[in-house]
Amino acid sequence: MTAQAFAQMSGGRTTPGPKMRTWIKDPIAILADGAARGVVVEDGRIAELVGPGAAPAAPVQRTFDASRHVVVPGLINTHHHMFQTLTRAHPAAINKELFAWLEALFPIWSKHLGPESFRLATRLALTELLMSGCTTVSDHQYLYPPGLDAAMDIQAEEAAALGMRITLTRGALNLTVEEGGNAVAGSVQDTDVILADCERVAARWHDRSDGAMTQVAFAPCAPFNVTRRLMVETAALAERCDCRLHTHLAETRDEIDYCREHFNCRPVDYLEEVGWLNERVWLAHGIHFNDEEVFRLGRRRVGVSHCPTSNMVLASGQCRTRELEAAGSPVGLGVDGSASNDNSNLMEAARHALMINRLTYDAARVTHLDALRWATAGSARCLGRSDIGVIAPGKQADLALYTLDELRFSGAGDPLAALILCGAHAADRVMIKGEWRLVDGAPPGVDVARLRAAHGQAALAFLREM
Ligand SMILES: [Zn+2]
Q: Model's pTM, two decimal places?
């Protein structure tokens, strides 16, 4: 079944129905120029911006009263490891930095992760993201213990069930501790198996059309746990399949030392050597770059997924967001895996982005609008999408609506700034491709309490390791 046929079966609209125009009317504020009276949505897209004092140019069949809402483009998550929701705040891993943290968790993940727990972890993380205002996700799924061959198919099914867009990011590990890497034997796959599955997943799920619900990217995990051959051949395959490429890079100083020791160069040099310094690529973290590397990355339009929460929890460092953007690199936001965050709340990550960047830059250089832009338009560029990330005519109707009803917002002046500064963390409504996928703070049809109970039960096995 093709991605488009699957989307149709699972509720995605691919054929035009009777004309239905919906006016999202009179929001408190909206992150779009010339839309003071809201937007009109038609056939899954933004049809019209309604300016101050104006009314829609053509009749509308439905009106949604947005007078309690602040409206922003649907948030886009560019880096995650959803399976890690099963090892949140794990006693074996807390209070450690990346390499020691991975060393503690790899054996536990490899031993216990199976298709059922993986499905629950995916469902839970997607639901959490959606409830925070996220409409498009990518999940860097690199762990394939025996029995998890259908991981990408499971994720496609779970995203479709919630009506969310997903970039299936087919990750990989193929270098164990014994071979000079840091993955454990139970979590790695043979290079040819990885490449064959990448090709299979792309053929089945990669929809290149405008408004796609499901796309595919290829993503060897990191320089320190995959082989050079896998990096090189994955890049060639991505060219052939017209897919994007993703990996972790320059997250820690330990990684810089690893590259010097094993490749006799720095991470960006290695990236160039294996054919990855191009605009098809977006990198997770991208922290430890010198000026010359920032310039090279920007010139080649390599994107960076900034993961502020994880970077603070693991004490990894501060991404040079402003220099990277000035050099030409798209910068987006990611929550990162749920054992180093340890939640999946993208709006909270936007707040953290503002805060950590103000430790690097002065307050005027990083504003709430920068944080929101990274979480929306910047993330869309990282995923190679021009059809989402902004509220403008012709773009996909992906919207996140927040109320300012909680105590934390009381007395707030600037509504858009309030989302970030007062700490919005739960959307009231989310629209994806013109359909309401979150209503009154919950996804219709999902029993959140039951999901919480089932996932918590599945996570117990990962704790018993202690
Ligand atoms: Zn990561």
A: 0.96
